[in-house]
Amino acid sequence: MIRVGVVGLGKMGLSHLSMFNAHPEVEVAGICDSAGYMLGVLNKYTGLKTYADMGAMLDDAELDAVVISTPSSMHAPMVRTALERGVSVFCEKPFCLDPADSAALTALAEEKGLVTQVGYHYRFVGAFAEVKRLLDLGAIGRVTHVLAEAYGPVVLKPQGSTWRTKKALGGGSLYDYAAHPLNLVNWYLGEAERAGGSVLNPVFSRETDDEVFSTLFFDPATPGGAPVTAQLSVNWSDESQRKMTTKVTIWGTEGRISADRQEVQVFLRDGAAVPDGYVPGWNVKYTTELTEEVWFYLRGEEYSAQVDTFVTRVIKGETEGVNNFAHAAATDRAIQLMVDDAAGVVRAPATGALAAPAGRTGRSLPGAVRSRVRSLLQKVGVAR
Amino acid sequence: MTTTTTEQVRMDRLLFGDNQFFGVNHMSEEKARAQAMKFQDISVVQSVLDDAYDEGVTTFMCTTHDRIALVADHVRANPERYPDMTFYPCMPYAHKYANAMTEDGPLGAIKRFLPDEGFLDAALRGSRSLATKDIEGIVTLLIDSEMKMFAGLRTPVIFLQNVVVDLLLGLGFNEAFKIFHDHVRARYGAEPGFITMNTPALLDVLDGLGIVNPIVCSNINKVGFRMSGGMEAYHRMLAEREFRAIAMSVFASGAIEPREAIEWVCAQPNIESIVFGASSRRNIAGTKALVDQYWVR
Prior knowledge:
The complex is a heterodimer of chains A (384) and B (297).
Chain A: E1 2-7, H1 11-22, E2 26-32, H2 36-46, E3 50-51, H3 54-60, E4 65-68, H4 75-84, E5 88-91, H5 99-112, E6 116-118, H6 126-136, E7 143-151, H7 173-189, E8 194-201, E9 211-218, E10 228-235, E11 245-252, E12 255-260, E13 263-268, E14 281-286, H8 287-290, H9 301-316, H10 325-343, H11 367-379
Parallel strand pairs in A: 1-2, 1-4, 2-3, 4-5, 5-6, 7-10
Antiparallel strand pairs in A: 7-11, 8-9, 9-10, 11-12, 12-13, 13-14
Helix pairs in contact in A: 4-5, 5-10, 7-10
Chain B: E1 14-17, H1 29-38, H2 42-54, E2 59-63, H3 66-77, E3 86-91, H4 94-112, H5 119-132, H6 135-147, E4 157-160, H7 162-171, H8 175-188, E5 191-196, H9 199-208, E6 215-219, H10 231-240, E7 244-248, H11 258-267, E8 271-276, H12 281-294
Parallel strand pairs in B: 1-2, 1-8, 2-3, 3-4, 4-5, 5-6, 6-7, 7-8
InterPro entries (chain A): Gfo/Idh/MocA-like_OxRdtase_N, Gfo/Idh/MocA_oxidrdct_glycsds, GFO_IDH_MocA-like_dom, NAD(P)-bd_dom_sf
Protein name (chain A): Dehydrogenase
Domain Gfo/Idh/MocA-like oxidoreductase N-terminal (chain A): 2-120
């Protein structure tokens, strides 16, 4: 039995609270939120102990772990506080808006030997996990290209102002939608070297992106070969979708895999290393056969599965595991590659004499500095 | 079939569900999209409902989706065509609230869903509730607004949707079930129903609230798809617990062949009804024939 506190009771926070509270190995020892009304209602009707802020809860509730579901810009300082107090952390995605924070917090958690996890629940969807298994088996040979897509109906007209409409606070489809397929691409291909042709465009929003497109370049599978590429296509102003719909399609030398939440479609060439249960040609596996039973169901097995995985890891003290901070930090770096690419920021090679301050994990540079660095780099032929 | 007391609503063995009309398919996004296209025109939805009705499946278990209001209007306008037509509303239709909030803001959304009896009474109930953290006023207000579209129609069972039931269940917000239960009985003279993916856990909670012999709709299928708590617990529950079970997802989204699926469900004890969705008269008739064949109780 572990003692868990929940911080932030928005849609995801409430959903996490419900699942953690239903877990047989968890006692929810405290909840906190900036909105007192929600806390009052929950305290009155569920008896859960409420706190005005996370600090007070950490002082009092003797927590083993904390669930942080606050707006993204608040993640880094709150996660740091929790880690410094020796508490394991489940943090909602995206992890940190600044990859330097992601790196520092990953190191801090490792130093403290604490269990960490970030809420990239797609890695717990049976169909997407099957894709990972097939790739690890080499079922489609050498991977050459991935198309990762996410579409859905979130921003369908100009709207008012919340943290989700502010880029600096972690709003926009890049952090909210694109982070998911990007995280899957990281899982399948590892870490990207660079991004090209990145577009972060508004459709209806004034201050954030509603559509995101980019090409990511990864190490070639064979030395000296062409880079492996992943194209990201994301739009959260797409009313044709009933809800968020994510799809990945992967081409390899021996076949093709396409997967969404419901099913995996696999084409294997004759002569491919055909895994057990598959045949050359077309194969289709459905969610019903790829999904494992969960102890409590709310909104999809993947949400329960990620909660159960975290709880089990905390009980066992397993710092390694799916979606730990190191994995989420890789996705934060990929996001930064795209942000920089879209803004025209040029990062010099880390070994170059004119290297930009923080290499590929750094912040965006102010415009004036950016153009000076770029013109310098152009002079020495490093940049176009 | 379970014997029912005189106070209880007698439920049909087969109920017609509405997932297929709204692009919900647990197996394939492509199929879901094809269905969304097919049923874009409400007259196509109505035509399938007519087919179900004419095959003798006269209970429509439906979400409170905006477009269902059009079906309700049609049935209200043609009472002679649908003398036995019965609705089992399932609420809330969550997307409706999310969309209304985006378009009109919170106040506008509340206004949009207010019951006919008038803004003042409802607003009073709402604001007093907000002030005192008395959730009862808010919940009953929302139920009334959801029921607006069914005014004048037969709604003997009213369901709370699984996303809400299971969220509340996890939170331990048990009193909400009692509030729903009491309001549905008192105001609509209807039997409250609960849709869940966690039947064993829910039954324990409902028992604790003194809700006797509740109608509970949940996945019950041969492969154990989305039967949280495990197949064994479901077996035990069906054999031993007092509740009125409605089986949904009996085909596990197509993972089980129809005959095998129906034969298995009909062999389980204590199941009172099966809810299923279909897009064609042939499939409706096929399911009806299988149920008639295997349900010999």
